[in-house]
Amino acid sequence: MTVTQSSVQDVEEAGSRPTAQVLVERAAALRPVLRAQQDDAEEVGHYGRNVHEALVAADLYRILTPKRYGGLEYDLTTYARVVIEISRGDPSTGWCYSLGHNHNLTTASHWSAEAQDEVFDQPGGYFRSSHSVAGASRAVRVDGGFRVTGTSPYQSGVPYSTHSTINAIVEGSADENGAPEMIAAIIPREQVRVLDDWGGDRVLGLRGSGSNTVVVDDVLVPEHRTSRFDWMNHDYDHSPGTELHGNPLYLGPVAGFFHMALASPLVGAARAALDEYERIITTRTTPFPPFMPRSEDPLHQADLGMAMTMTDAAEAIVLRVADMYMEHCTDAVERGVPFTMKKDARLYGMSQRAAEMASDAVGILFRSAGSSAAMAGHPMQRYYRDVAMARGHASSQYAWTAMKLAQIHFGLRKSPY
């Protein structure tokens, strides 16, 4: 059986909707292939075409896509479990996959039916839009839309995207608080330039995450393909997505969801590091007498046990965040209980704690694995670099964010950003 064929095709009849468990099993079945291509993915900056085709064949690009457009429309818990399994095979690939596919949910939540009917109309139902809030793009209002120009770095997942979503400040416009108005504009891939500025030695870690820079040169974006980017500055009880799709999944709060999508690859990285550490301590002896398998050494056992419990706890938090997100969405849409910014901020904080714990677990294993694990090309070194790179992300500035979350709690701040 080739990599582009699902290893669980016998579980279901062709054309039927795979169960959530089948999707997770398909992601796990890719692990040997993902690990075999880690070096190549780091060098070129993203996972290879064979992995992309395997993800397509396994239906893993359709998890969050609405059924209206041929998607599976599964819950976030299923999605998080899939991301963790892919990231256990290769954290960079998991990050690239997650940060591309999760925008299927935000697109289905925040854009009009006209826009969604247009952008989701792709061959085989395949849609994927990278999105970064970084950069300095500007938008000039013209008849029928905006002309957008600028540079948007860190567009993770862009190598296999059909579109890029660009945040831009609208010139000469302000919101009700006097702040510059910002929009998110969905632009087809053929209308932007993707710079070859990721992978290799350009960055410390997550080298295969496809976090390239996207450049937009005076592109006309129709009004209907833009959304006001105030997604974290208000409470929710309905959205264009809930009205169009009839599913609370598409309500649209993003702080907790987005950071859950960042934490999930790090949990996968911790699982990958546990796999590698167990291989090391069951195949190598202690360096000093009394010589014994490292797996029988109490110090190595303690490091393994600590990292195991931290990883298990981090995964449990991520999955609980996914469950709580759906509970809040359902409460808002079906029972009229708003999904508030405070609730979203608390989910954001929980996701941060999960990411921190998973990253710290990798650190324990890296320090305990021995100096050979720090050599170039060693899997443990790669996993350590990956979590170190993630620790530089804005979402990983834990003390800074904790202060803002407390301010939200006391009503002194509107958004965690």
Description of the structure:
With 417 residues, this protein is of the alpha+beta class. It has three domains: 9-108, Orthogonal Bundle (Butyryl-Coa Dehydrogenase, subunit A, domain 1); 129-229, Beta Barrel (Butyryl-CoA Dehydrogenase, subunit A, domain 2), CATH 2.40.110.10; 249-409, Butyryl-CoA Dehydrogenase, subunit A, domain 3, CATH 1.20.140.10. The protein contains 14 helices and seven strands. A seven-stranded mixed beta sheet has the order 5-6-2-1-3-4-7. The longest helix has 38 residues, at 298-335. Its EC number is 1.14.14.12. This is 3-hydroxy-9,10-secoandrosta-1,3,5(10)-triene-9, 17-dione monooxygenase. Residues 262-396 form the Acyl-CoA dehydrogenase C-terminal domain.
List keywords for this structure.
alpha+beta, Butyryl-Coa Dehydrogenase, subunit A, domain 1, Butyryl-CoA Dehydrogenase, subunit A, domain 2
Structural category is alpha+beta
Spatial arrangement of strands, main beta sheet = 5-6-2-1-3-4-7
Radius of gyration: 22 Å
CATH superfamily of the largest domain: Butyryl-CoA Dehydrogenase, subunit A, domain 3
Which regions are unreliable across 5 or more consecutive residues at pLDDT < 50?
Answer: 1-14
EC number: 1.14.14.12
Keywords: Monooxygenase, Oxidoreductase
GO molecular function: 3-hydroxy-9,10-secoandrosta-1,3,5(10)-triene-9,17-dione monooxygenase activity
Protein name: 3-hydroxy-9,10-secoandrosta-1,3,5(10)-triene-9, 17-dione monooxygenase
